[in-house]
Automatic annotation (TrEMBL), chain A:
Main location: nucleus
Role played: Involved in rRNA-processing at A0, A1 and A2 sites and negatively regulates telomerase.
Keyword annotations from UniProtKB, A to Z: Nucleus, Ribosome biogenesis, rRNA processing
Protein family according to the UniProt entry: Belongs to the PINX1 family.
Record GO terms (molecular function): nucleic acid binding
Name of this protein: PinX1-related protein 1
Ranges annotated as biased composition (Basic and acidic residues): 154-184, 248-268
GO biological process assignments: rRNA processing
Organism (species): Acrodontium crateriforme
Automatic annotation (TrEMBL), chain B:
Residue span of region Disordered: 1-41
GO cellular component, one term: post-mRNA release spliceosomal complex
Keywords of the record: ATP-binding, Helicase, Hydrolase, mRNA processing, mRNA splicing, Nucleotide-binding, Nucleus
Naturally occurring in which organism (per UniProt): Acrodontium crateriforme
Protein name: RNA helicase
Reactions catalysed, as given in the entry: ATP + H2O = ADP + phosphate + H(+)
Membrane listed as a keyword: no
């Protein structure tokens, strides 16, 4: 805990675990258990129980639970990983890195990542983000509406990325390459996606089914159109027809096998298109999410995924307690000032 | 049979004439009555008489179900029956009915796994009914539920499905309420109730099949029942046992039940996408609120379920979300968001609110409205809310833990298990594909969460359990075959406590007092206090106090009116402590003035009407038991100087193990034997500086508090609980010196009195 942390005083007894009782082997309970054939260190329960392999430490001694005085989430630590940075140690991370046997290249990348993250958070703090309205997606020469979303795929990709992040270095490559597209998970709390693999698989499968259905539909359409050549033609069918003709020319014949092959090609193309669309959509979504979280950032969780191995970014505006302090001050002012009230409710004026 | 008896560790109880008056044993004498014969008579007319027990087929049963007459009571089947039958046949379990029957007929024990929504709770007992034909044996099928409400509502549903009146062929039995008749062949009951029956009838002879439902919840009673039934099935080859679980730790059940066959039926659930945060959260509550708002802002229609830990946290979150959602609707044109709280101590009327449909859009064509339910983990398994599509899971719940070393049982916020997390996520996929947002990283999910939640038996003080086991005839506690044997230290403490309470003698056998105490559905200390209260001429008062101590907090202290609430509490305050204050409250509540409009009166005095009403109810039930046990109900006249002193002395008779003595520093207290430093809880009314206090509850926080305290005199301690306050057993220290001083003073006074008399 830093110097500014609130003092916590608690009195510990000389024997908080009451070992005096634990060690006492003459008490009634101990006597009865021993008389029934129990020996210290043994589990209770049937002798040679078939389910013994399922026993855990909780069957040997009482369950220990950490007393929680704050709302720290699972996996987060008090002071946490960000603490070093708070004290300016981040600047030394290069030296530490080298001392830890990392190559100069790695260290360099690490520092670049740090710098980028800082820049991003600075920009976010200072100017806020531009909001854009979704205006559809341009595919070829027409607008596509009603995109199917594909969170499963996105999340799968994301997961892979996260896995990479842990390694630390590859992330940087990604960061550099896709920088502007993905100011993303910076500050993004909650909803980032990384679904468990089976879950995503299930959704994928489902989607595949749907796609298949779509395809079937289209195929049917295609066949009917080839059967009745002289019907009214809309642009779409025309294009399809043209493509088919070209192919037919190439093959010389219109065999069913051909047709299927052709449809496969088309499938692949469509798939690729869809994939691209999804990618796009996902990015947009992330952007939106980020904006949203930015908006509500008063006491931000500031969980950022700076590519430093196992470290998180510096919390802007000083330590967690500084943020807290500010929050409390604002709260005090709240009754007088509607603006302050708004801030406490974590809403920035639009 | 006799040989089996010898093998078993259970002591058989002789049934004597005295048992005839025992309601739990009523069935043993039923055969002489017309009751069962009548049931059989009915059955003989129906198609069921052609059925061969344990040899039926799904097809045959199907015919019987199609009517036209009810196979169980001969009455013509109603229209509703057939419409329900149609939906019933669509349930996943029906697809595997034949498979179930084959396995059920072949083996004595069966483990059945069905995810939520498979229909197992309502259908399997009916499958059993048609095959087991318990009416032909004069027996019953029992199906246990961990919760009273579930037992009642499921029984109601199944009665409808079988087209019979609830309480006739299908009934339920929960504590204090028996809705069965001599015609009953299928009985839903709480697991605790079956355990109580087992105390008086170790072989559970009135049942031909016992179904333990929701076994995955691993309640204390279910765990003990499993241990018990494992023995019973050895003694009774005709008894069949089905263990039903909703989760996949079924292998553990299978192993435990000697590799019993397993039947799994898939549930009817939709896929749920799981999302993790990329980084751990600094504040899970805030993150949860933001996630909810974000879902509201960005996700398509569908209701949200957010899991938080406690009443206070939930109420706070609900308030904030409603506030923010209104703002969002005003400023960003979002749809309406209605947020509801859900926790156990919520009044039923308010609990019902969560089933209201989501609010309509503000204007036609506007963004759809949505409801958000902020709940404790009761929404995890026990309550199903339709329409939930998004689940927000911060990964915490309040869980009971018991530390036998310092003898503290408390509810603490701690991380849930993986199994729990999956259950929570599953709630999103009840009506259509959903999403679950977990406010922790995937790595944390894998590394920091335990696989399975700890069963209750590992998290509780076992004093009353040991008493029950003793009553059940289990003497070898060490080798009692539990699925999860408790920690040895926990068992030791329980034995020790019971010994000090004189419920167990020095050989570890049940005493008369212990037998009587086991009749009360109370903590042994409370039971002993109640039983010994006539000695102090205040059993009426102790009865009220016991009831008050076994219900939720009676004092209400809303954040907005703390001062008013405290003033009102002062009206009832008794300077000697909180127990007496509570008693004053109860007496005032029962006064004619208050009873005119009790609800308003409670509201005016910042008291919980529900808690007081509940206390009233519990008091009535306990009174009935006291009358049955022939414990005198007496009172000291209120004018007597000793009125309150007697009550305090009676309190010591039960709570002498929960006493703290003031430190020499004069600020903190120290618990007498376990020597833990504690503070008086700020809510206490204890006015005087009392050196010795008896407390009801040890609250574990960074500062340890004792709550509900009453001043006692050390002389009483030495008088009433001489074995516990045997000075030789204390280590050198303040407590010992103080006790020694008191003892010396007492013997001096006694000598003086004797001298004076001479």
């Amino acid at each position: 805990m830093g110097l500014g942390a609130p003092k916590k005083r608690s009195k510990l007894s000389t024997d908080p675990n009451n070992t005096a009782w634990t060690k006492n082997t003459t008490n009634f309970g101990h006597r009865i258990l021993s008389s029934q054939g129990w020996q210290p260190g043994q589990y209770l329960g049937a002798k040679d129980a078939a389910h013994q392999e399922h026993y855990t430490a909780a069957n040997a001694s009482h369950i220990r639970v950490l007393l929680r005085e704050d709302n720290l989430g699972i996996g987060a630590q008090v002071g946490g990983n960000g603490r070093a940075e708070t004290f300016g140690l981040a600047t030394l991370s290069g030296i530490f890195g080298r001392l830890n046997g990392k190559t100069d290249g790695e260290v360099q990348k690490q520092q670049e990542g740090l710098r980028d993250a800082e820049l991003r958070s600075y920009q976010g703090m200072k100017y806020g983000h531009m909001n854009f309205v979704y205006g559809g997606l341009l595919v070829g020469d027409k607008m596509e509406e009603g995109l199917m979303k594909d969170l499963a795929r996105a999340s799968k990709k994301r997961k892979a990325e996260e896995g990479v992040e842990e390694e630390g270095q590859k992330t940087l490559k990604r960061k550099k390459g896709e920088e502007n597209l993905r100011a993303e998970a910076e500050d993004e709390e909650s909803a980032s996606s990384s679904s468990s693999s089976d879950e995503s698989e299930r959704t994928l499968k489902k989607k595949a089914k749907k796609e298949k259905k779509d395809r079937k539909e289209k195929k049917r359409q295609a066949t009917t159109s080839s059967d009745s050549d002289d019907e009214t033609e809309d642009a779409k069918r025309l294009r399809k027809e043209a493509r088919r003709k070209a192919k037919r020319d190439a093959a010389g014949q219109d065999s069913p096998a051909e047709k299927s092959k052709e449809s496969k090609d088309e499938k692949a193309r469509r798939k690729a298109e869809k994939h691209a669309r999804k990618e796009e959509k996902r990015k947009r979504k992330e952007e939106k999410r980020r904006l949203k979280s930015e908006k509500t950032s008063a006491n931000s969780t500031s969980a950022s995924n700076t590519p430093v191995t196992g470290n998180s970014t510096p919390l802007f505006g000083g330590s967690r307690h500084a943020v807290r302090q500010r929050y409390i001050q604002q709260k005090r002012l709240a009754s007088m000032d509607p603006q302050a009230l708004k801030e406490i409710l974590m809403l920035k004026a639009q | 049979m006799a040989e089996e008896d010898n093998k078993s560790r259970f002591k058989r109880q002789k049934t004597s004439d005295q048992d005839r008056s025992n309601p739990y044993l009523a069935h043993m004498y039923n055969d002489e009555n017309a009751g069962n014969g009548q049931t059989n008579g009915h059955a003989n007319d129906s198609i069921l008489s052609t059925f061969k027990r344990h040899a039926t087929t799904a097809a045959g049963v199907r015919k019987a179900e199609d009517g036209p007459n009810n196979p169980f009571n001969g009455a013509p089947l109603s229209q509703r029956y057939f419409s329900i039958l149609k939906t019933r046949r669509g349930l996943p379990v029906h697809a595997q009915r034949q498979e179930f029957l084959d396995m059920y007929q072949k083996s004595q024990i069966l483990v059945f796994v069905g995810e939520t929504g498979s229909g197992k709770t309502t259908q399997i007992p009916q499958f059993v009914l048609y095959d087991d034909l318990p009416q032909s044996q004069g027996k019953m099928v029992a199906c246990t539920q961990p919760r009273r409400v579930a037992a009642m509502s499921v029984a109601q549903r199944v009665a409808q499905e079988l087209d019979v009146t609830l309480g006739q062929e299908v009934g339920y039995s929960i504590r204090f309420e028996d809705m069965t008749s001599n015609k009953t062949i299928l009985k839903y009951m709480t697991d605790g109730m079956l355990l109580r029956e087992a105390m008086n009838d170790h072989d559970l002879k009135r049942y031909s099949t016992i179904i333990l439902d929701e076994a995955h919840e691993r309640t204390l009673a279910t765990d003990i029942l499993m241990g018990l039934l494992k023995e019973v099935v050895k003694r009774r080859p005709d008894l069949k046992l089905i263990i039903m679980s909703a989760t996949l730790d079924a292998q553990k059940f299978q192993k435990y039940f000697l590799d019993a066959p397993l039947l799994a039926v898939p549930g009817r659930t939709h896929p749920v996408e799981i999302f993790y945060t990329p980084e751990p959260e600094r504040d899970y509550v805030e993150a949860a609120l933001r996630t909810v708002l974000q879902i509201h802002a960005t996700e398509p229609e569908g209701d949200i379920l957010l899991f938080l830990t406690g009443e206070e946290e939930i109420e706070d979150a609900v308030r904030k979300i409603n506030l923010e959602a209104d703002e969002m609707a005003r400023e960003a044109n979002s749809g309406p968001l209605k947020c509801y709280a859900l926790y156990g101590s919520l009044p039923p009327a308010q609990q019902q609110k969560i089933f209201e449909p989501a609010p309509a859009p503000y204007k036609p064509g506007g963004r759809p409205g949505r409801k958000c339910i902020v709940s404790t983990n009761i929404a995890e398994t026990s309550l199903t809310i339709d329409g939930i599509v998004y689940v927000v899971d911060p990964g915490f719940s309040k869980q009971k833990v018991y530390n036998p070393r310092i003898r503290v049982e408390s509810l603490l916020v701690s991380p849930i298990s993986k199994a729990s997390a999956q259950q929570r996520a599953g709630r999103a996929g009840r009506t259509r594909p959903g999403k679950c947002f977990r406010l922790y990283t995937e790595a944390a999910f894998k590394k920091e969460l335990i696989d399975q939640s700890y069963p209750e038996i590992l998290r509780s003080n076992l004093a009353s359990t040991v008493l029950e086991l003793k009553k059940l005839g289990v003497d070898d506690l060490v080798h009692f075959d539990l699925m999860d044997p408790p920690a040895p230290e926990t068992l030791m403490r329980a034995l020790e406590e019971l010994n000090y309470l004189a419920c167990l003698d020095d050989e570890g056998d049940l005493t008369a007092l212990g037998k009587m105490a086991s009749e009360f559905p109370l903590d042994p200390a409370l039971a002993v206090m109640l039983i010994s209260s006539p000695e102090f001429y205040c059993s009426n008062e102790m009865l009220s106090l016991t009831a008050l101590l076994s219900v939720p907090q009676v004092f209400v202290r809303p954040a907005a009116a703390r001062k008013r609430a405290d003033e009102m509490k002062d009206l009832f305050a008794h300077e000697d402590g909180d127990h007496l204050t509570m008693l004053n409250v109860y007496h005032a509540f029962k006064s004619p003035a208050a009873q005119e409009n009790p609800k308003q009166w409670c509201h005016d005095h910042f008291l919980s009407f529900r808690a007081l009403q509940q206390a009233d109810n519990v008091r009535m039930q306990l009174k009935r038991i006291m009358e049955r046990e022939e414990i005198e109900l007496v009172s000291t006249p209120f004018e007597d100087k000793k009125y309150y002193e007697n009550i305090r002395r009676a309190l010591v008779a039960g709570f002498f193990m929960q006493v703290a003595k003031k430190d020499t520093s004069g600020k903190t207290y120290v618990t007498v034997k376990d020597k833990q430093p504690v503070l008086l809880h700020p809510s206490t009314v204890l006015g005087q500086d009392s050196e010795w206090v008896a407390y009801n509850e040890f609250v574990l926080t960074s500062k340890n508090y004792i709550r509900t305290v009453t001043a006692v005199k050390p002389e009483w301690l030495l008088d009433i609980a001489p074995t516990y306050y045997d000075i030789e057993s204390f280590d050198k220290g303040e407590v010992r010196t103080a006790l020694q001083r008191v003892k010396d003073r007492m013997s001096r006074r006694r000598a003086q009195v004797a001298g004076g008399r001479r």
